[in-house]
Write a structure and sequence with these properties.
Order of helices and strands: HHEEEEEEEEEEEEEEEEHHEEEHH
Structural class: alpha+beta
Distance between the termini: 34 Å
Strand order of the largest sheet: 4-7-2-1-10-13-12
Strand content: 35-45%
Bound molecules: zinc ion
Oligomer: single chain
Number of strands: 19
């Protein structure tokens, strides 16, 4: 097929897809994060076709190590909208011995790097942390790096505080990883072609609550700092972009689907709207379990509403982020519903979370099934 015809077909196809995408957007104004990503990728393909360039794909880079576990310990400073943190990565080189490891780390102020294996040098650029080991780490050998850093994230982690004009009683922070924004608040292999278990510890003032993936191992107050440490553990592997953290003041509604804890968390000012948005979640879980034939795969299913969240929702493993715009009062009950968004994000717990596309060029698979 000649190039001009190919470009013409690509543009026509894109416009056709664009028409469908527009209709889909009109029908579902509260987009899932994946849907928004698809729209962005589609726009990029269209722009490339219009410029006569080959379509661009978003392939993940080669893996040089197998990451086994990521542990992040975060102390946020809500007033300064910054954080002090430590990230521990357990890994083993694959294919060949590892002399140097490049981690995504955008805008992080790296204070210290230690390792189970002697480090020759570290270098921090605007976007990466490069760790050079004295001796190459043999293939298959277990290794660990511990990175202490500070961050004032411009992406990936967002504060909503009284200093910014929000009610102090609604103070919160939330994160959004997809596609590759978590590197603004913790160092990692920030691509979807690597799965590992995770632990998130968040130290916050008493009265606040911190939510993350998996199950809550402990909630302890430190006598010296007065901060309460929430320790979450995700013991089934998942990908970097599905790591999540929300912290702040919330009110919640809880229930159970069999033994599975199910909950919805909202900012305190939205408490009167909890019940409307929560009412279908268990029915949706029940329906998908029966239809898919695979039991719900994670330790819990929580939804949590983030103030000014940019999309409709994001299916982070076991803890979906939802926009507060999905909440509605009884007065608007006949006009609005959270059902479509709720069902879409629950479906992603299987399609996208349990089974994940290797890179963004296959994102349509996540979205097609959900
Ligand atoms: Zn989606």
């Amino acid at each position: 097929m000649n190039r001009q015809l190919l470009v013409t077909l690509a543009v026509l196809g894109s416009q056709l897809l664009g028409t469908f995408a527009l209709r889909a957007n009109e029908a579902h104004l509260l987009q899932c994060g994946h849907c928004a990503m698809m729209a962005r990728l589609h726009a990029r393909q269209l722009a490339a076709a219009e410029q006569g360039k080959a379509p661009q794909n978003s392939y993940a880079p080669d893996r040089f190590v197998d990451v086994a576990h990521l542990k992040i310990d975060v102390t946020p400073n809500f007033k300064e909208r910054s954080l002090a943190a430590t990230a521990v990565l357990d890994f083993a080189p694959i294919a060949k011995p590892l002399k140097q490891w490049h981690l995504n780390a955008t805008g992080l102020d790296i204070r210290q790097v230690t390792s189970s294996h002697a480090i020759q040098a570290t270098q921090s650029t605007d976007t990466h942390l490069e760790i050079t080991f004295r001796d190459p780490i043999p293939t298959g050998e277990d290794a660990r790096v511990t990175i202490t850093y500070n961050a004032t994230p411009k992406k990936g982690l967002y504060f909503r505080t009284a200093e910014m004009g929000y009610p102090a009683s609604d103070t919160q922070l939330w994160t959004q990883g997809e596609p590759e924004d978590h590197q603004h608040w913790f160092p990692s292999h920030d691509y979807p072609n690597e799965k590992f278990t995770t632990e998130v510890i968040c130290r916050i003032p008493a009265g606040m609550e911190a939510l993350s993936n998996g199950r809550l191992l402990s909630q302890k107050k430190d006598k010296d700092t007065g901060l309460v440490a929430f320790h979450w553990f995700q013991d089934k592997v998942h990908v970097n972009y599905l790591v999540t953290l929300l912290a702040g003041y919330f009110v919640k509604m809880e229930d159970k689907h069999g033994e599975l804890p199910v909950a919805l968390y909202v900012p305190p000012s939205e408490k009167d709207q909890l019940a409307n948005t929560f009412r279908d979640t268990i029915k949706i879980l029940d329906y998908f379990e029966r239809e898919i034939g695979v039991p719900y795969p994670w330790d819990k299913y929580y939804n949590a509403c983030a103030i000014d969240y940019m999309w409709g929702g994001m299916e982070n493993t076991s803890l979906t982020t939802l926009t507060t715009r999905t909440l509605f009062t009884d007065a608007t009950e006949n006009l609005r519903s959270s059902r479509g968004l709720d069902a879409h994000e629950v479906a992603h717990q299987w399609f996208g979370d349990l089974v994940t596309c290797r890179d963004w060029s296959h994102l349509w698979l996540n979205e097609g099934f959900a």
